[in-house]
């Protein structure tokens, strides 16, 4: 049911109208005659260069946030004529970039060169004339294009080029990888197919920026920043959008007054910081739910260890998790980003192992006793720190390289580490991914999880101090275990699958050589065949890895892989 205008007046208290006023009337001069339109680019490599491969995490966030503030999200009729649409938009200002995508309808993201372009559009946009319903007159940068004059292209002659916002189905991926020439190429190819595109990243920042406009009704100096896989370099198309409502700007804005008199704000007191976070999220969540266009299915999960509100943003198709007071997670995202930027093999291995884990049911969308993507990523980083010579440095070393500006203490935890990527010396590890992939599986297939814990700060196993089956020390809150949720059964499945996969990836290399067609899944592709299929229709869990290996061995006999038998026997013996 649509909220009445009377309900909306409740919102007058916070700065809703002031905010709208600002959006409405800040428009400056009309756009110049020579408007420039830069066509949407899809090339991943070019985008990587565009964003400057070695940009620090915070420079990246700032640049992206600034781009998003100059952008609009516009729902378009499916028969929109792209050329006319651009011509129309260009009357408001120079356009830096635009693209179209589909999600419950057709949408365009338009980034102006200057904020004035956005103000100009908003100044001229009108409220819809509703005949049989009421609506909250909340104005935002999510708009609808009305095409009375523009929409003259019949559907059959659609001229819009849509950019894909979802990842390739795994079966198509398997086929694609099977055609690659080497395992190294397979890992890079998977990364390229699954990683977030330039446009998807822009859309993520734009959604944060749109939500910030809503939260700014209450906290004008707040910001909403993406964290997690949206920004850490390991995001897969379709991953959730983790957001952090940052109110730090508010406290930092207050200058210290050294005068006889000074004034301070009266604030409502709460018993704990957690209680304040809960009430902020509850109110912002309510506001997003009631007034945020396109935001549906609001769930308030305020009693979780890290309180959050969860909802879907329909125009982007993103599942959103909004948290507050979660600066450590922001630091973890920065750390993962840094590791991913140091060496291209890191991202390729993490993407591939994450994909393998998802296909084999080691990770899940449903919360539970599974390993999470975050846990898996930390495990890959640890493995790469343990190589000889190490591929990436330990966190303690990154801390030593930190400059004065990098100092960071959050809730008493030292979260300092270098942010300038150029200060981190390139390691001289030259191992191929073809070598590293089975080594990763070997490493964890034989890891003594009963006695040892994983610590990327030290890059060394340590003696376990708690009873959890899997102990991975939180790099910043060192007394915490990031994998405390994982139970013994799930850990055992992970270990068994590692053992099996170490063997399988090597044997499939043999299968590839014997397959002239390139259609047989081999190498990484073979690891992405879901277990149920690999066991010829038998239900998951009804076959032990040993019996599965036996079956696979028999199927491989026909592929004349006599030379490999010694390796297989050795692998079986280890188990
Ligand atoms: P996806 O599965 O693609 O969403 O990966 P993700 O890295 O975004 O993971 P998730 O959405 O579960 O969590 C978002 C971020 O929160 C992570 O990237 C971490 O920075 C942080 N995080 C998640 N789980 C933990 C945890 O158990 N401990 C700590 N310290 N941080 C966590
Ligand atoms: Mg996430």
Structure, described:
- With 575 residues, this protein is an alpha+beta fold.
- The chain folds into two domains: 254 residues, 2-Layer Sandwich (Beta Polymerase, domain 2), CATH 3.30.460.10; 158 residues, Poly(a)-polymerase, middle domain (Orthogonal Bundle).
- It contains 21 helices and 13 strands.
- Strands 5-6-9-8-7 form a five-stranded mixed sheet, with helices on both faces.
- Strand 2 and strand 3 form a beta hairpin.
- Helix 7 runs antiparallel to helix 8 and helix 8 crosses helix 13.
- The structure holds guanosine-5'-triphosphate and magnesium ion.
- Magnesium ion binds next to loops.
N-to-C CA distance: 61 Å
Strand content: 5-15%
SSE class: alpha+beta
CATH overall fold name of the largest domain: Beta Polymerase, domain 2
Query: How does CATH name the architecture of the largest domain?
Result: 2-Layer Sandwich
Helix fraction, binned, reads 40-55%
What is the name of the CATH class of the largest domain?
Answer: Alpha Beta
- Give the oligomeric state of the chains in this entry, treating copies of one chain as homo and distinct chains as hetero: single chain
CATH superfamily of the largest domain: Beta Polymerase, domain 2
Domain Poly(A) RNA polymerase mitochondrial-like central palm: 183-341
Protein name: Mitochondrial poly(A) polymerase
Keywords: Magnesium, Metal-binding, Transferase
Cofactor: Mn(2+); Mg(2+)
């Amino acid at each position: 049911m649509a909220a009445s205008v009377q309900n909306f007046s409740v919102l007058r208290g916070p700065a809703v109208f002031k905010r709208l006023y600002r959006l409405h009337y800040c428009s400056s001069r009309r756009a110049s005659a020579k408007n420039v339109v830069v066509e949407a680019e899809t090339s991943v490599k070019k985008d990587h260069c565009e964003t400057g491969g070695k940009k620090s995490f915070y420079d990246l966030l700032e640049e992206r946030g600034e781009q998003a503030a100059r952008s609009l999200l516009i729902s378009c009729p499916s028969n929109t004529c792209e050329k006319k649409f651009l011509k129309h938009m260009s009357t408001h200002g120079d356009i830096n970039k635009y693209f179209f995508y589909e999600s419950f309808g057709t949408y365009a993201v338009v980034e102006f060169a200057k904020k004035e372009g956005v103000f100009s559009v908003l100044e001229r946009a009108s409220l819809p004339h509703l005949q049989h319903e009421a609506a909250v007159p909340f104005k935002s940068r999510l708009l609808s294009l009305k095409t009375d004059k523009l929409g003259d292209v019949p559907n059959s002659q659609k001229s819009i080029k849509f950019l894909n916002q979802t990842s390739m189905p795994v079966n198509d991926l398997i086929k694609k990888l099977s055609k690659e020439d080497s395992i190294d190429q397979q890992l890079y190819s998977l990364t390229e197919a699954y990683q977030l595109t330039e446009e998807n990243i822009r859309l993520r920042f734009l959604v944060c920026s749109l939500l910030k406009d809503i939260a700014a009704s209450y906290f004008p100096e707040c910001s909403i920043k993406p964290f997690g896989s949206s920004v850490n370099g390991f995001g897969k198309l379709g991953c959730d959008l983790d957001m952090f409502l940052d109110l730090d700007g508010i406290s930092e804005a207050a200058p210290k007054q050294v005068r006889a008199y000074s004034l301070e704000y009266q604030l409502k007191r709460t018993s704990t910081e957690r209680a304040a976070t809960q009430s902020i999220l509850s109110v912002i969540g309510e506001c997003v739910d009631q007034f945020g266009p396109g935001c549906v299915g609001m769930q308030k999960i305020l009693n979780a260890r890290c309180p959050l509100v969860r909802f879907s943003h329909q125009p982007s198709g993103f599942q959103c998790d909004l948290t507050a007071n979660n600066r450590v997670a922001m630091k973890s995202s920065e750390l993962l980003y840094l590791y991913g930027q140091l060496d291209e093999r890191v991202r390729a291995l993490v993407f591939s192992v994450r994909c393998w884990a998802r296909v084999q049911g080691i990770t899940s969308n449903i919360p539970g006793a599974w390993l999470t993507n975050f846990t898996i990523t930390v495990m890959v980083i640890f493995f790469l720190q343990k190589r000889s010579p190490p591929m990436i440095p330990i966190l303690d070393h990154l801390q030593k390289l930190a400059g004065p500006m990098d100092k960071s203490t959050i809730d008493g935890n030292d979260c300092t580490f270098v942010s300038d990527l150029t200060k981190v010396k390139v390691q001289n590890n030259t191992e191929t991914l073809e070598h590293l992939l089975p080594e990763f599986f070997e490493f964890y297939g034989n890891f003594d999880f009963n006695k040892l814990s994983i610590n990327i700060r030290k890059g060394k196993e340590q003696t376990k101090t708690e009873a959890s089956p899997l102990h991975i020390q939180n790099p910043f809150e060192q007394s915490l275990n990031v994998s405390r949720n994982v139970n013994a059964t799930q850990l055992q499945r992970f270990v068994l699958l590692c053992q099996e996969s170490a063997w399988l990836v090597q044997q499939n290399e043999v299968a590839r050589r014997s397959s002239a067609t390139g259609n047989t899944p081999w190498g990484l592709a073979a690891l992405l065949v879901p277990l149920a299929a690999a066991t010829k229709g038998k239900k998951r869990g009804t076959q032990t890895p040993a019996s599965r290996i036996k079956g696979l061995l028999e199927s491989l006999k026909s592929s004349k892989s006599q030379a490999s038998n010694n390796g297989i026997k050795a692998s079986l013996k280890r188990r």
